[in-house]
Amino acid sequence: MRELASSFAAAASATAAAAAAAVVALRGWWNDVNESPQWQDGAFFSLAAAYALVSAVALIQLIRIQRRVPELGWTTQKIFHLMNFLVNGVRALVFAFHVHVFLLRTKVYKLVLLDLPGLLFFSTYTLLVLFWAEIYHQARSLPTDKLRPAYIAVNSIIYVVQVCIWIYLGINDNTAVELASKIFIVAVSFVALLGFSVYGGRLFFLLRRFPIESKGRQKKLYEVGTVTAICVTCFLIRCVVVALSAFDPDVSLEVLDHPILDLFYYTLAEILPSALVLFVLRKLPPKRVSAQYHPIN
């Protein structure tokens, strides 16, 4: 029995030693990857190419919509695709010049270039929340006159607060204020997550109560349910990762030597959601003027 126990102990010790050696080797490989200029260029140029592709798709779709219904002016659908084009285009430029961006001597300039597209992403996708909220309120005979002013007010407050934070950081590079900036971005992402959960969920269950034979019911259910799930997931990822990066430097998204982390984060939080939403909402509006597509005043 003693010999058997000794054999088990020796085997357990050898396994633990092998596991520790594997962890050390993996950590060494991870550090080599993070510090490798080739891996950095590969990750960030891949992000730039992916963002450029999504931006081009949004622009092509915008042109198709404009050619289909030029008489409708700037509808919510057109503005959504225009903002997608701008957000992804800016991200593509930032990552195409990643070396210059991440090595900027004035830190606040880097924060502006990395965080501003994230705020524009928030404005772009909460435009869908506004559109769904208007549909839901109209269907329930509720007033809609305060929805658009509320959207504009919320976005205005967010941009004013963030600009004030950037101005302060430009004057005084304060660690506590930089932490507050990240927490603010987490809060902004949570607002978007909450908006999609509330109005995406309400509209989805409202559509489910429509008669099964209703025209377009199943397709609208698919669109609303899928887009809600995609957007809730991407803003949840943003909340979690940005919150972690605020307290753990190893999860920082604002440094050059975290290429794999940045690749996965931006792919899951922005590129993939944008591509999927553009695909789901790819249908062109009907040629005839429809009450469903109102110009934005």
Automatic annotation (TrEMBL):
UniProt KW keywords: Membrane, Transmembrane, Transmembrane helix
What family does the Swiss-Prot or TrEMBL record give for this protein?
Belongs to the plant tobamovirus multiplication TOM1 protein family.
Q: Where is the signal peptide?
A: none
UniProt xrefs under InterPro entries: THH1/TOM1/TOM3 (IPR040226), THH1/TOM1/TOM3_dom (IPR009457)
Membrane topology qualifier: Multi-pass membrane protein
Q: Which GO terms describe its cellular component?
A: plant-type vacuole membrane
- Primary place of residence? membrane
Q: Which residues form the THH1/TOM1/TOM3 domain?
A: 27-296
Q: State the species of origin.
A: Digitaria exilis
Segments passing through the bilayer: 44-65, 85-104, 116-137, 149-171, 183-205, 226-247, 263-281
What domain of life?
A: Eukaryota
UniProt-recorded name of the protein: THH1/TOM1/TOM3 domain-containing protein
Q: Pfam families from the entry? A: THH1_TOM1-3_dom
**Keyword field contains Transmembrane:** yes
Establish whether keyword Transmembrane is in the entry: yes
Q: Where in the cell is it found?
A: Vacuole membrane
